[in-house]
Task: inverse folding
């Protein structure tokens, strides 16, 4: 891995370069994290049934969404206060959620939320540094879990390397980043919204047999709020990436 640039400490907080919601960048980040190459990423440039039918995607049980602040606030300003503070830990929790305490790391957090939960973490390669980190994180209380991620040089290097090699000009950690990443993951039939900037995980609903996150019901439980907010605010700065894997199961 190419020697990455260093994060900066801004107002006492370690701050990264923002990540692009770009399949190539996400794939590079996965390579840096030693995540299975079976995991793949697809730009969803339209959620119309016609477009999705033509794409022939494998079953999709995770989405990564990036939305500019006006869209995000319109979609989530009334939802966020209703989410109770998460206090869970241990392997019996229905989903793995992690608080974000690193500045501009919401892209990394979205990917980790997807990979740690998708098919019970099967795309985290055994006996890797990320595998060890995931296993430790599961056992920790939320505050200690967040600190584990904050202190990880492995995550820092992987993120900074990928973020500095996107298609657009590389921003500075000091740039005002007005975009928000979040992940949606279907686990055991339930659809979860996982965002390290909220109080905890948000259960969005349950899908039926044969439904995935790109089905009509799946989109209703995930990206639809943000697509409607984009239309209402007149802001079109959002993107959706589908995360798929080999022989994916919900």
Result:
């Amino acid at each position: 891995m190419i020697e990455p640039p260093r994060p900066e400490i801004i107002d006492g907080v370690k701050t990264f370069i923002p990540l692009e919601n770009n399949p190539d960048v996400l794939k590079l980040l996965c390579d840096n994290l030693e995540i299975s190459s079976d995991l793949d990423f697809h730009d969803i440039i339209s959620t119309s049934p016609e477009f999705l039918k033509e794409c022939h995607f494998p079953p999709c049980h995770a989405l990564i969404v990036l939305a500019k602040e006006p869209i995000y606030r319109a979609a989530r300003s009334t939802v966020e206060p209703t989410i109770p503070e998460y206090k869970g830990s241990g392997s019996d929790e229905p989903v793995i959620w992690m608080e974000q305490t690193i500045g501009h790391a919401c892209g990394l957090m979205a990917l980790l939320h997807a990979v740690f939960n998708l098919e019970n973490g099967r795309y985290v390669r055994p006996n890797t540094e990320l595998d060890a980190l995931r296993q430790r994180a599961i056992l920790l209380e939320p505050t200690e879990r967040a600190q584990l991620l904050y202190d990880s040089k492995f995550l820092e290097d992987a993120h900074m390397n990928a973020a500095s090699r996107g298609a657009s000009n590389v921003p500075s950690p000091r740039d005002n980043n007005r975009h928000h990443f979040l992940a949606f993951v279907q686990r055991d039939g339930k659809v979860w919204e996982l965002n390290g900037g909220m109080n905890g995980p948000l259960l969005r609903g349950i899908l039926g047999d044969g439904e995935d996150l790109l089905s009509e019901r799946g989109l209703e439980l995930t990206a639809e709020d943000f697509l409607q907010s984009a239309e209402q605010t007149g802001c079109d700065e959002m993107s959706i990436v589908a995360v798929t894997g080999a022989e994916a199961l919900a």
Observations:
- The beta strands are 8-10, 13-15, 40-43, 60-68, 179-187, 190-194, 202-206, 238-244.
- The chain has nine helices and eight strands.
- The first helix runs from residue 23 to 32.
- Residues 129 and 161 are 17 Å apart (CA to CA).
